[in-house]
C-alpha cells in the first residue's frame, strides 16, 4: 500500500524549502520503488489565515491518518501580536503533543566540506557526528500549573512546572539506548540532578533502563557542564539523551558547531516510529520570498523520514550521498558560503541534489 505523506510547508521560507524537498522525495520514491501519496495542508500562520487557528481539527485528523508528516517551519512577525493561544508555534506544539511525538532526534553532523563554516576551529569540529535525543512532549513546556499573577504586595510573579513521570523518562531513555546501540554504544544522559527533583528521577530511571542495555556505556552529565563541553570538545559525545528544555537549548548550540542551522534535519517519533520530520531552523522571515534559503535541512529531513519511519535505508543513504556530492561540487547557499565556492539559490540547490541523486 502507498505510504501517505502529509506535507505542511508552514510559513516564511517553508514553501520555498519544501518545494525542493518534495522534488527529492518524489525522485527517491521513483528510483527506489516506494509507493507514496502526498497531500498538502497548512500549519502555523498559514493555517491561522486559512482556518482561524494554527492547527485545524481537519489538519490534525489528516496528520493522524498519514504514515508520516513533512513540515517546513512556522511563525513570523505578522503573528507576533495576535492572541498567544493562536500563535503559529501553538499549532506546532499541539500537533507534536496530540500525535504523541515524544522522541526528537536531532543529528548534528559536520560535513567535511563545511568545516570552514563553523565558528569553532576545524580541528575541534571536523568529523563531528552527534545525535541529540530530546524528550519533546513533556517537562516544563507542557507542565501544569503555569501561571502569571500579582502578589499581595503588588509584585508580578510567574511560574512554570517541570514534571516528568517515570514512563515518560523510560520511553525516551529507550530511544537513546537504541540509537546508541547502532552507533558507537555510548550514551550520555544530560540532567540537572544536583538541583532538580525531576532530574533526580530522570537519572534514576535512565540507570534502570540501562540495565537492559549492558552493551551500551552510560554516562551522566549536568547540563551546565554539557553546554561547556559541547563547545570545548564536542567530539567526546556520540548520543545525548535529555529532557525537553535542555534538549531545545543544547541542540541549537550543537547546530552551530556544524556551521549553519540550514543544514540540520530532525525527526519527532511516536511509540511506533511514525513521525514528523522537519528542519531544525525556523521560518527565517528575514529571507523569506527571496529564493535564497538553504533547502538542505528539509531535504535531509526527507532522508530521516525514509530511514526512521519507512526503514528505507538505501533511499535515505542515497539522499545523504547526493547532498554530500553537491557540497563537493562547491555549491553553497548564502548561509554556508565560503571562498572559492559558487553561491546558488534555493531552487538551484534543490535541482543539484535531484541531479546528483539521479546519477547515483
Ligand atoms: P530562524 O531559524 O527562523 O532564523 C534564524 C537565522 O537563521 C535567520 O537569520 C535566518 O535567516 C537563518 N536561517 C534559518 N533557516 C535558514 C535556511 N534554511 N537557510 C538560510 N538561512 C536560514 O529563527 P528565528 O529568526 O529565531 O525565528 C523566526 C520565526 O521562526 C519565529 O516566528 C520563530 O518562532 C519561528 N521558529 C519556528 C520553528 C519551527 O517551525 N520549528 C523553530 C524555530 C523558530
From TrEMBL:
Its cofactor is Mn(2+); Mg(2+). Binds 1 Mg(2+) or Mn(2+) ion per subunit. The gene is leuB. Belongs to the isocitrate and isopropylmalate dehydrogenases family. LeuB type 1 subfamily. It comes from Halopseudomonas xinjiangensis. HAMAP family: LeuB_type1. It catalyses: (2R,3S)-3-isopropylmalate + NAD(+) = 4-methyl-2-oxopentanoate + CO2 + NADH. Mg(2+) binds at residues 224, 248, 252. GO terms for cellular component: cytosol. GO terms for molecular function: 3-isopropylmalate dehydrogenase activity; magnesium ion binding; NAD binding. Catalyzes the oxidation of 3-carboxy-2-hydroxy-4-methylpentanoate (3-isopropylmalate) to 3-carboxy-4-methyl-2-oxopentanoate. The product decarboxylates to 4-methyl-2 oxopentanoate. This is 3-isopropylmalate dehydrogenase. Homodimer.
Amino acid at each position: 500500500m502507498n505510504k501517505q505523506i502529509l506535507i505542511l510547508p508552514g510559513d516564511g521560507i517553508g514553501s520555498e524549502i519544501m518545494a525542493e524537498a518534495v522534488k527529492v522525495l518524489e525522485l527517491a520514491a521513483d528510483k527506489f520503488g516506494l509507493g507514496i501519496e502526498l497531500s498538502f495542508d497548512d500549519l502555523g500562520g498559514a493555517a491561522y489565515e486559512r482556518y482561524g487557528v494554527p492547527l485545524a481539527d481537519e489538519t490534525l485528523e489528516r496528520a493522524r491518518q498519514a504514515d508520516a508528516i513533512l513540515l517546513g517551519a512556522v511563525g513570523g512577525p505578522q503573528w507576533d501580536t495576535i492572541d498567544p493561544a493562536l500563535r503559529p508555534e501553538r499549532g506546532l506544539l499541539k500537533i507534536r503533543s496530540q500525535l504523541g511525538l515524544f522522541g526528537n532526534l536531532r543529528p548534528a553532523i559536520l560535513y567535511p566540506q563545511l568545516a570552514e563554516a563553523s565558528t569553532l576551529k576545524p580541528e575541534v569540529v571536523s568529523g563531528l557526528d552527534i545525535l541529540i535525543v530530546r524528550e519533546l512532549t513533556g517537562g516544563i513546556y507542557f507542565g501544569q500549573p503555569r501561571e502569571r499573577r500579582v502578589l499581595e504586595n503588588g509584585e508580578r510573579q510567574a511560574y512554570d512546572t517541570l514534571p516528568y513521570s517515570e514512563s515518560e523518562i523510560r520511553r525516551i531513555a529507550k530511544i537513546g539506548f537504541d540509537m546508541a546501540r547502532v552507533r558507537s554504544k555510548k550514551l550520555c544522559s544530560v540532567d540537572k540532578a544536583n538541583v532538580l527533583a525531576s532530574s533526580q528521577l530522570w537519572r534514576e530511571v535512565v540507570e534502570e533502563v540501562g540495565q537492559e542495555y549492558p552493551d551500551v556505556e552510560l554516562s551522566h552529565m549536568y547540563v551546565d557542564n554539557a553546554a561547556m563541553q559541547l563547545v570545548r570538545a564536542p567530539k567526546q559525545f556520540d548520543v545525548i539523551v535529555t529532557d525537553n528544555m535542555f534538549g531545545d537549548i543544547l541542540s541549537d548550540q550543537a547546530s552551530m558547531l556544524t556551521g549553519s542551522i540550514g543544514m540540520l534535519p530532525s525527526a519527532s517519533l511516536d511509540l511506533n516510529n511514525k513521525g514528523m520530520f522537519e528542519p531544525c531552523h525556523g521560518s527565517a522571515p528575514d529571507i523569506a520570498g527571496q529564493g535564497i534559503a538553504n533547502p538542505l535541512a528539509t531535504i535531509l529531513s526527507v532522508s530521516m523520514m525514509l530511514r526512521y519511519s519507512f526503514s528505507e535505508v538505501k533511499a535515505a543513504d542515497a539522499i545523504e550521498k547526493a547532498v554530500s556530492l553537491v557540497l563537493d561540487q562547491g555549491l553553497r547557499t548564502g548561509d554556508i558560503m565560503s571562498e572559492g565556492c559558487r553561491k546558488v539559490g534555493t531552487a538551484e540547490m534543490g535541482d543539484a541534489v535531484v541531479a546528483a541523486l539521479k546519477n547515483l
